Amino acid sequence: MSAIIFSIKRILLIPLVLPIYLVIKLRHILFNLEILLSEKPEEIRTIAVGNLSFGGTGKTPMVQLLIQLLSSEYQIAVLSRGYGRTTKGFRIVEPEDDYQDVGDEPLLIKQNFPDVPVAVCEDRLEGIRKLKGMYPDLNLIILDDALQHRKVHPDVSVLLTTWDKPYFSDCLFPAGTLRDLKERAKNVDVTVITKTPADASIQRKKALQSIHSKYSGSPVFFCTFINTIAALPHPTHQKVAVVSTIANPDQMVQSVRLLGFCVKKIYRFKDHQTIDPAKWIEILEYCMRFNLFCIVTQKEKVKLPKELYQAYRHLIGILEIEFVIENKTEFINIIKKKLML
């Protein structure tokens, strides 16, 4: 019944899609005709990581994987818009920053890779120029969530889409979750289908590759997320509360359950939403009162005030995600080859 209701809602929303489609289409036409200009940064290579939908595809884990795979050969920096931050303009991210000043995902990346320069700036070209000026030895900048930022023409574009809702099976907002046109897939160099089940069949993979080939000539790689929970003992059906500020909280909850935990309470917040200290205390006191562990991802952990984390750390488990990509050597070799052109 819920599927039927969803389909009816999508049909009713289709008339609202047309004006959005026309605006996005016109913008791409203006860039294609060079009425609006794209610039390829000089003396430095760039990789754009992004998607065609509203979040939840694994951009941050992909950025971190690229850092791991390329840092032995390149001096890398990361540049993000810093979505959700309260500040404006260019800013270097430091590990001790408040996430509200720099954005939760840039702060997460910086804390995981303290030796890698991370910056936020709405204007990607300005951000690239300032990073290069501050760090003359840089030769590669990874642009987080940058496929829609056509003012920058990157050396490599990596498109992420999910197994359950690939871009070619989705619709433009508000009838679906796409924020860009499906045809944009033809301009990317590599496509990664994330959240692929570990037991996914070869037949299903080939079917997805076949449909993708109608939109893009880019090679397809499949990626599985392996989840573990740090700072908690091995689960024996322990009772937990889950706190989520990610785009797809249902998948987080499912991952926690698959690890053997019994989810008794779910706190759902919007993607990137701020959680104030009073709310954190309410959540953690609830967990203490009902003898629950509190499960968060690294994205929520950077939002947790340090003093609260220290006070309640015996209750808190971190859901960590390992980004496992099939044919990883082939994947990174394609990217390296593009960077050398």
Automatic annotation (TrEMBL):
GO cellular component, one term: plasma membrane
Catalysed reactions listed for this entry: a lipid A disaccharide + ATP = a lipid IVA + ADP + H(+)
E.C. numbers: 2.7.1.130
GO-annotated molecular function: ATP binding; lipid-A 4'-kinase activity
Primary enzyme class: transferase
Domain of life: Bacteria
Pathway: Glycolipid biosynthesis; lipid IV(A) biosynthesis; lipid IV(A) from (3R)-3-hydroxytetradecanoyl-[acyl-carrier-protein] and UDP-N-acetyl-alpha-D-glucosamine: step 6/6
Keyword set, alphabetical order: ATP-binding, Kinase, Lipid A biosynthesis, Lipid biosynthesis, Lipid metabolism, Membrane, Nucleotide-binding, Transferase, Transmembrane, Transmembrane helix
Membrane-spanning residues: 12-31
PANTHER family per UniProt: TETRAACYLDISACCHARIDE 4'-KINASE (PTHR42724), TETRAACYLDISACCHARIDE 4'-KINASE, MITOCHONDRIAL-RELATED (PTHR42724:SF1)
Biological role stated in the UniProt entry: Transfers the gamma-phosphate of ATP to the 4'-position of a tetraacyldisaccharide 1-phosphate intermediate (termed DS-1-P) to form tetraacyldisaccharide 1,4'-bis-phosphate (lipid IVA).
Record-linked NCBIfam families: lpxK
Family: Belongs to the LpxK family.
Protein name: Tetraacyldisaccharide 4'-kinase
Lineage: Bacteria, Pseudomonadati, Bacteroidota, Flavobacteriia, Flavobacteriales
Gene that this polypeptide is encoded by: lpxK
